[in-house]
C-alpha cells in the first residue's frame, strides 16, 4: 500500500511540474503582452497631443496645397521649393520657441516678454535665418531643377517668392511663437510634447498660404523693374544678415553659427523631397487630393521617427538597450510599439485626407484608393524608419555622441525625402495606368 501511495505522489508531482511548464509559456507570453500593452498605452497618452496637433496642421496645410494646382502649373518648380520651406519654418521657429522657453525657466527672460537683450537677439537671429535660408532654398530649388532637367521658373522668380513667403510667415510665426512659449511656461508644458509640435504645426499651416501670397504678388510684378529691385534688395538683405550674424555680438553670432549648418542640411533634404514630388507632377496635378496627403504623410513619418529616436536614446542612456549591431529584446519591443502606431496612423491619415478634400469640393481619387496609398506607402516607409533610426542611435552612442542631439534632427530631416519617395512610388503604381 505504501508503495502505491509513493507512486501516486510521484505521478502527481510529475504531472504538476508538467502542467507548470505547460502554463508557464502562455503566462510568459501574457506577461510580455501586458508590458507591451502598458508601453503602448503610455506612449499614446504622452504623444496624443503632439500627434493630434500634427494631424490637424497637416490637414490644413494639405488642403491649401491641393488648392494650389494652378499656381504649381504657372510657376514650374514651385513644388520643389515647398517641402523645404515648410521644414525650414518649423526648424527656425521651433528652435526659437525652445530658446525662449529655456530663458523663461532660468529667469533671464521676463514672463511679460518685455523688451530685453535676450528677446532682441533671439528675434534678430530668427529673422536673419529666415532671409538667409529662404534665399538658399530658392537657389537650391533652381539648381536641382536644372540638374534633373525639370522645367522651372527663373532664379529671380524663385528668390522673390521664397523670401516673400518667408517674410509673410515670419510676421505671424514670430508673435505666435512668443505667445506659445509664454503659455508653455505659465502652464508647465513639456516643450517636446506640446510647445515644439504647436510651433512646427503653425509653420505647416502658415507657410503654404504665405507662399501662395508670394505667388499672387509675383503675378502682379513678374517681368517688371519692381521684381528685379525686390530680388536685388533681398540679396542685399541676405548679405547684410550674414555679416551681422558672423560679426555681431556673441549671443546672436552663436545662434546663427550653430543653426546655419543644420538648416542647410535640412533645407537640402527638403528640396530633395520636393524634386521627388515634382518628378510626377502630371499625376499629382490631375489628382489634387494627393497633395492633401503629402504634409500629413511626411509629418507622421517624422512623429514615428521622433518617438522611436527618443525611446532608443533613453534606453541607451539608462543601459536598458545595449549598443549592439543586432537589436536585442528591448529594442525589438520598441520596434513593435512603432509598428502598432503606424498601423493605426497611416490608414487614419488617408481617411482624413479624403474627407477633408471631399468636404471642400476638391476632386478626390476615392476613399479606398486614398487609404490604400497612405497605408501601403507607410508600410514601405516603416522598415526604413526602424533601421536608420536604430543604427544611427547605436552609431552615435558608440562614438560618444549624445543621441538626443544627433538622432532626432537627422532622422526627421531624412524622413521627408524617404516619405515622399515611398508615397510617389505607391501613387505611380496605383494611378500610373492613367494617361496624362
UniProtKB/TrEMBL annotation:
* Signal peptide location: none
Q: Which residues cross the membrane?
A: 7-28, 48-66, 78-101, 121-148, 155-178, 198-221, 228-246, 258-277, 335-356, 376-394, 406-431
Q: Which residues form a coiled coil?
A: none
Which GO molecular-function terms appear in the entry? monoatomic cation transmembrane transporter activity
Query: May I have one GO cellular component term?
Result: membrane
Iron-sulfur is among the record's keywords: no
List, for all copies, the residue spans of the domain called SLC41A/MgtE integral membrane. Answer: 82-213, 294-425
Task: Kindly give the SUPFAM superfamilies that the UniProt entry links to this protein.
Answer: MgtE membrane domain-like (SSF161093)
| Chief localisation class | membrane
Q: Which UniProt keywords apply?
A: Ion transport, Magnesium, Membrane, Transmembrane, Transmembrane helix, Transport
Query: Where is this chain's protein located in or outside the cell?
Result: Membrane
Q: Per its UniProt record, what Pfam families does this chain match?
A: MgtE
Q: Does the keyword Transport apply?
A: yes
* Membrane protein topology class: Multi-pass membrane protein
Q: What does the sequence similarity comment in the record state about its family?
A: Belongs to the SLC41A transporter family.
- Which protein, by its recorded name, is this? Magnesium transporter
Q: Which organism is it from?
A: Methanobacterium alkalithermotolerans
Amino acid at each position: 500500500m505504501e508503495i502505491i501511495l509513493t507512486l501516486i505522489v510521484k505521478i502527481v508531482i510529475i504531472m504538476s511540474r508538467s502542467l507548470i511548464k505547460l502554463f508557464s509559456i502562455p503566462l510568459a507570453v501574457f506577461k510580455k503582452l501586458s508590458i507591451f500593452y502598458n508601453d503602448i498605452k503610455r506612449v499614446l497618452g504622452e504623444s496624443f497631443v503632439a500627434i493630434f496637433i500634427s494631424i490637424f496642421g497637416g490637414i490644413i496645410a494639405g488642403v491649401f496645397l491641393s488648392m494650389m494646382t494652378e499656381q504649381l502649373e504657372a510657376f514650374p518648380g514651385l513644388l520643389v521649393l515647398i517641402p523645404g520651406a515648410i521644414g525650414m519654418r518649423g526648424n527656425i521657429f521651433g528652435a526659437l520657441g525652445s530658446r525662449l522657453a529655456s530663458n523663461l525657466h532660468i529667469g533671464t527672460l521676463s514672463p511679460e516678454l518685455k523688451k530685453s537683450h535676450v528677446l532682441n537677439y533671439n528675434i534678430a537671429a530668427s529673422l536673419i535665418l529666415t532671409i538667409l535660408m529662404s534665399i538658399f532654398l530658392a537657389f537650391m530649388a533652381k539648381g536641382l531643377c536644372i540638374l534633373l532637367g525639370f522645367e522651372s521658373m527663373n532664379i529671380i522668380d524663385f528668390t522673390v517668392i521664397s523670401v516673400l513667403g518667408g517674410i509673410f510667415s515670419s510676421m505671424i510665426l514670430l508673435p505666435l511663437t512668443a505667445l506659445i512659449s509664454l503659455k508653455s511656461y505659465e502652464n508647465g508644458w513639456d516643450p517636446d510634447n506640446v510647445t515644439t509640435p504647436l510651433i512646427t504645426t503653425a509653420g505647416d499651416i502658415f507657410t503654404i498660404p504665405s507662399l501662395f501670397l508670394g505667388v499672387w504678388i509675383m503675378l502682379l510684378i513678374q517681368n517688371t523693374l519692381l521684381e528685379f529691385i525686390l530680388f536685388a534688395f533681398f540679396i542685399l538683405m541676405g548679405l547684410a544678415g550674414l555679416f551681422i550674424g558672423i560679426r555681431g555680438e556673441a549671443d546672436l553670432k552663436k545662434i546663427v553659427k550653430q543653426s546655419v549648418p543644420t538648416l542647410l542640411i535640412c533645407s537640402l533634404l527638403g528640396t530633395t523631397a520636393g524634386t521627388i514630388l515634382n518628378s510626377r507632377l502630371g499625376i499629382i496635378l490631375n489628382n489634387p487630393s494627393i497633395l492633401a496627403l503629402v504634409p500629413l504623410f511626411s509629418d507622421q513619418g517624422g512623429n514615428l521617427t521622433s518617438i522611436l529616436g527618443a525611446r532608443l536614446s533613453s534606453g541607451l542612456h539608462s543601459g536598458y538597450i545595449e549598443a549592439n549591431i543586432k537589436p536585442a529584446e528591448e529594442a525589438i519591443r520598441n520596434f513593435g510599439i512603432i509598428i502598432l502606431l503606424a498601423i493605426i496612423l497611416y490608414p487614419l491619415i488617408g481617411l482624413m485626407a479624403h474627407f477633408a478634400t471631399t468636404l471642400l469640393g476638391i476632386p478626390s481619387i476615392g476613399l479606398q484608393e486614398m487609404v490604400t496609398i497612405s497605408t501601403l506607402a507607410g508600410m514601405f516607409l516603416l522598415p526604413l524608419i526602424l533601421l536608420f533610426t536604430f543604427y544611427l542611435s547605436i552609431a552615435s552612442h558608440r562614438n560618444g555622441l549624445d543621441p538626443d542631439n544627433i538622432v532626432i534632427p537627422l532622422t526627421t530631416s531624412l524622413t521627408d525625402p524617404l516619405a515622399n519617395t515611398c508615397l510617389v512610388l505607391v501613387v505611380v503604381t496605383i494611378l500610373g495606368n492613367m494617361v496624362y
